[in-house]
Protein backbone atom coordinates (compact mmCIF):
# COMPACT_ATOMS: atom_id res chain seq x y z
CA UNK A 1 0.00 0.00 0.00
CA UNK A 2 1.19 3.51 -0.81
CA UNK A 3 2.34 5.50 2.23
CA UNK A 4 2.14 9.31 2.15
CA UNK A 5 3.82 11.53 4.74
CA UNK A 6 1.98 14.82 5.41
CA UNK A 7 4.15 17.48 7.08
CA UNK A 8 2.11 20.47 8.25
CA UNK A 9 1.90 22.28 11.58
CA UNK A 10 -1.78 23.16 11.15
CA UNK A 11 -3.80 20.27 12.64
CA UNK A 12 -7.04 21.01 10.77
CA UNK A 13 -5.25 20.94 7.40
CA UNK A 14 -3.42 17.77 8.36
CA UNK A 15 -6.75 16.17 9.26
CA UNK A 16 -8.48 17.34 6.07
CA UNK A 17 -5.72 16.15 3.76
CA UNK A 18 -5.09 12.92 5.69
CA UNK A 19 -8.76 11.94 5.75
CA UNK A 20 -9.18 12.55 2.02
CA UNK A 21 -6.07 10.50 1.21
CA UNK A 22 -7.15 7.68 3.52
CA UNK A 23 -10.56 7.68 1.85
CA UNK A 24 -8.68 7.16 -1.44
CA UNK A 25 -6.95 4.10 0.02
CA UNK A 26 -3.57 5.53 0.99
CA UNK A 27 -1.80 5.00 4.29
CA UNK A 28 -1.04 8.43 5.79
CA UNK A 29 1.38 9.54 8.47
CA UNK A 30 1.14 13.14 9.70
CA UNK A 31 3.94 15.04 11.40
CA UNK A 32 4.22 18.66 12.51
CA UNK A 33 7.92 19.46 12.83
CA UNK A 34 11.31 18.85 11.25
CA UNK A 35 12.74 16.81 14.13
CA UNK A 36 9.82 14.36 14.00
CA UNK A 37 10.27 14.06 10.25
CA UNK A 38 13.97 13.29 10.55
CA UNK A 39 13.22 10.60 13.14
CA UNK A 40 10.44 9.12 11.02
CA UNK A 41 12.55 9.02 7.87
CA UNK A 42 15.29 7.25 9.83
CA UNK A 43 12.85 4.36 10.41
CA UNK A 44 10.51 4.50 7.40
CA UNK A 45 10.54 5.72 3.84
CA UNK A 46 7.21 6.94 2.52
CA UNK A 47 6.28 6.81 -1.17
CA UNK A 48 5.51 10.53 -1.24
CA UNK A 49 5.94 13.56 1.03
CA UNK A 50 3.54 16.53 1.20
CA UNK A 51 5.52 19.38 2.76
CA UNK A 52 4.30 22.72 4.08
CA UNK A 53 6.96 25.41 3.69
CA UNK A 54 6.45 27.05 7.07
CA UNK A 55 6.61 24.86 10.14
CA UNK A 56 6.88 25.85 13.79
CA UNK A 57 10.33 27.38 14.09
CA UNK A 58 11.74 25.68 11.00
CA UNK A 59 11.55 26.67 7.39
CA UNK A 60 10.38 23.94 5.02
CA UNK A 61 13.07 24.79 2.47
CA UNK A 62 15.71 23.43 4.85
CA UNK A 63 13.67 20.28 5.41
CA UNK A 64 13.21 19.87 1.65
CA UNK A 65 17.00 20.07 1.23
CA UNK A 66 17.55 17.51 3.99
CA UNK A 67 14.99 15.08 2.53
CA UNK A 68 16.27 15.40 -1.04
CA UNK A 69 19.92 15.09 0.01
CA UNK A 70 19.24 11.83 1.84
CA UNK A 71 16.43 10.47 -0.37
CA UNK A 72 16.88 12.02 -3.83
CA UNK A 73 14.26 9.81 -5.51
CA UNK A 74 11.55 10.39 -2.88
CA UNK A 75 8.86 12.62 -4.43
CA UNK A 76 8.20 15.78 -2.39
CA UNK A 77 5.19 17.94 -3.18
CA UNK A 78 5.22 21.44 -1.64
CA UNK A 79 1.84 22.39 -0.17
CA UNK A 80 1.75 26.03 0.90
CA UNK A 81 -0.63 28.91 1.50
CA UNK A 82 1.70 31.39 -0.19
CA UNK A 83 1.50 31.97 -3.93
CA UNK A 84 4.73 33.94 -4.31
CA UNK A 85 7.00 30.89 -4.86
CA UNK A 86 6.07 30.03 -8.46
CA UNK A 87 9.38 31.43 -9.80
CA UNK A 88 11.53 30.51 -6.82
CA UNK A 89 14.56 28.46 -7.96
CA UNK A 90 14.45 26.40 -4.75
CA UNK A 91 11.29 24.75 -6.12
CA UNK A 92 13.46 22.85 -8.59
CA UNK A 93 14.30 20.42 -5.77
CA UNK A 94 10.62 19.63 -5.20
CA UNK A 95 8.53 17.44 -7.47
CA UNK A 96 5.61 19.83 -7.50
CA UNK A 97 3.96 22.84 -5.87
CA UNK A 98 0.36 23.33 -4.84
CA UNK A 99 -1.48 26.13 -3.06
CA UNK A 100 -3.65 25.47 -0.04
CA UNK A 101 -7.09 26.70 -0.90
CA UNK A 102 -10.65 25.46 -1.10
CA UNK A 103 -9.95 23.39 -4.21
CA UNK A 104 -6.70 21.91 -2.89
CA UNK A 105 -8.02 18.35 -2.60
CA UNK A 106 -8.91 18.08 -6.29
CA UNK A 107 -5.53 19.41 -7.42
CA UNK A 108 -3.71 17.41 -4.73
CA UNK A 109 -5.32 14.18 -5.93
CA UNK A 110 -4.27 14.95 -9.50
CA UNK A 111 -0.65 15.71 -8.56
CA UNK A 112 -0.40 12.63 -6.31
CA UNK A 113 -1.81 10.51 -9.11
CA UNK A 114 0.74 11.94 -11.57
CA UNK A 115 3.67 11.37 -9.19
CA UNK A 116 2.69 7.82 -8.22
CA UNK A 117 1.49 6.50 -11.58
CA UNK A 118 2.64 2.95 -12.14
CA UNK A 119 3.69 2.24 -8.55
CA UNK A 120 2.29 -0.94 -6.99
CA UNK A 121 -0.68 -0.11 -4.76
CA UNK A 122 -1.38 3.20 -6.48
CA UNK A 123 -5.03 4.18 -6.78
CA UNK A 124 -4.35 6.77 -9.47
CA UNK A 125 -7.10 5.55 -11.77
CA UNK A 126 -9.69 5.40 -9.00
CA UNK A 127 -9.63 9.10 -8.05
CA UNK A 128 -12.92 10.89 -7.89
CA UNK A 129 -12.82 14.66 -8.13
CA UNK A 130 -15.56 15.94 -5.89
CA UNK A 131 -13.44 18.56 -4.14
CA UNK A 132 -16.15 21.13 -3.56
CA UNK A 133 -18.63 18.64 -2.13
CA UNK A 134 -16.02 16.84 -0.03
CA UNK A 135 -14.44 20.06 1.22
CA UNK A 136 -17.78 21.44 2.33
CA UNK A 137 -18.64 18.15 4.06
CA UNK A 138 -15.34 18.04 5.96
CA UNK A 139 -15.18 21.74 6.78
CA UNK A 140 -18.86 22.09 7.68
CA UNK A 141 -20.28 24.86 5.56
CA UNK A 142 -17.04 26.87 5.73
CA UNK A 143 -14.60 27.13 2.87
CA UNK A 144 -10.85 27.06 3.18
CA UNK A 145 -9.29 30.34 2.05
CA UNK A 146 -5.97 30.77 0.31
CA UNK A 147 -4.15 31.71 3.52
CA UNK A 148 -5.45 28.62 5.34
CA UNK A 149 -8.21 30.41 7.19
CA UNK A 150 -11.81 29.43 7.02
CA UNK A 151 -14.38 31.73 5.56
CA UNK A 152 -18.15 31.61 5.70
Can you characterise this structure?
The chain starts with a strand and ends with a strand. It has five helices and nine strands; from the N terminus they run βαβαβββαββααββ. It has one domain (3-151): Response regulator (Rossmann fold). The chain has helices at 11-23, 34-43, 60-70, 104-116, 131-138, and strands at residues 3-7, 27-31, 48-51, 54-55, 58-59, 76-80, 96-99, 143-144, 150-151. A five-stranded parallel beta sheet has the order 2-1-3-6-7, sandwiched between helices.
State the main characteristics.
152 residues; alpha/beta; Rossmann fold; five-stranded parallel sheet; two-stranded antiparallel ribbon; globular
Strand content: 15-25%
What's the total number of strands? 9
Q: What structural category do the secondary elements indicate?
A: alpha/beta
CATH class: Alpha Beta
Strand neighbour order, sheet with most strands: 2-1-3-6-7
* Main beta sheet: 5 strands, parallel
Number of helices: 5
Shape: globular
Domain unit count: 1
**Approximately how much helix is present in the residues?**
25-40%
State the gist of this model.
The chain is an alpha/beta fold and 152 residues long. 36% of the residues lie in helices and 20% in strands. The protein has helices at residues 11-23, 34-43, 60-70, 104-116, 131-138; strands at 3-7, 27-31, 48-51, 54-55, 58-59, 76-80, 96-99, 143-144, 150-151.
Amino acid sequence: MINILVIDDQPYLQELISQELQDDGYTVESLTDAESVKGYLGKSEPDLVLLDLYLNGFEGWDLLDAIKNKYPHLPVLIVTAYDNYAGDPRLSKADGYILKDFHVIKELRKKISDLLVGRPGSHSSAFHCEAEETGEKLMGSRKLGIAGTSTS
